[in-house]
Amino acid sequence: MGTISKALEMLNCFSRKRPEIGLSEFVRLTGRDKATVHRHLVELEQNGFLEQHPVTRAYRLGPAILRLTGVREATNPVRSILRPVVTGLAQETGELAHASLLQGQMLSPVFHFDPQMHGIKVNFDEAELLPLHATSSGLAVLAFAEERLRKEVLAANLDAFTPNTIVDPEKLTPLIASARRTGLSHLDRTY
User: Fold this and answer.
1) What is the dihedral of CA 181, 186, 187, 191, to 10 degrees?
2) pLDDT tens digits for 150-189?
3) What is the rounded distance in angstroms from the CA atom of residue 127 to the CA atom of residue 54?
4) Beta pairing partners, 154
5) Nearest C-alpha neighbor of 122 from the set 100, 87, 97, 102
6) Residues 84-111: what's their mean pLDDT?
7) For residues 79 and 127, which has the higher predicted lDDT (pLDDT)?
């Protein structure tokens, strides 16, 4: 992994649950030495991708992220196109619906809508990447993706996020085939 990749990978450590990250936590999260992590943080900050909280000195996403998000949506609209489709689907089914883009071997959520027609609230974080093998959405993608992607995912060392996460390719393969055959995928407490 190159220097740029290592620096950019650090941006994926942020989430709604972790909006600010200090130097020591970055060292722990990345498994890299403190000097290298600090150098990457300084460069990301100098380029506007991060900023430091003036009191805690923890890092948070910077204004360059907002600018690039605006450029992306203005030139290649995704959210504005998906918003009415996802909202309509959620209202029609009475369930949370979301649309995501494939990012490597993960799903990057773009937009979600929960009509909140039931007493159960689904927690969905658009800032969190979704693993293909551990989510119903991921199985649906694998069911209709190119064979190359399916093979790559099933050959990888799959993470168990909960005790119910299926990491055995021989157990995932029939679930993927079923999703392709029926158009439906279902996993329970796997992520």
Assistant:
1) 110
2) 999 999 999 999 999 999 999 999 999 999 999 999 999 9
3) 24
4) none
5) 97
6) 94
7) 79
Q: Domain 3-67, what fold?
A: Arc Repressor Mutant, subunit A (1.10.10)
SS3 letters across the chain: CCHHHHHHHHHCCCCCCCCCECHHHHHHHHCCCHHHHHHHHHHHHHCCCEEECCCCCCEEECHHHHHHHHHHHHHCCCHHHHHHHHHHHHHHHCCCEEEEEEECCEEEEEEEECCCCCCCCCCCCCCCCEECCCCHHHHHHHHHCCHHHHHHHHHCCCCCCCCCCCCCHHHHHHHHHHHHHHCCCCCCCCC
Assigned token pair, 30: 């990345």
pLDDT at residue 97 in the model = 92
Q: Where in the chain is the domain with CATH 3.30.450.40?
A: 84-182
Alpha-carbon distance 186 to 179, whole Å?
8
pTM: 0.77
Q: Which residues pair with 131 in a beta bridge?
A: 106
For residues 74 and 67, the answer to whether their CB atoms sit within 8 Å is: no
From the candidate CATH numbers 3.40.190.10, 3.30.450.40, 3.40.1190.10, 3.30.930.10, the one assigned to the domain spanning 84-182: 3.30.450.40
From CA 49, how far away is CA 184, in angstroms rounded? Answer: 39
Domain with CATH 1.10.10.10 in the chain: 3-67
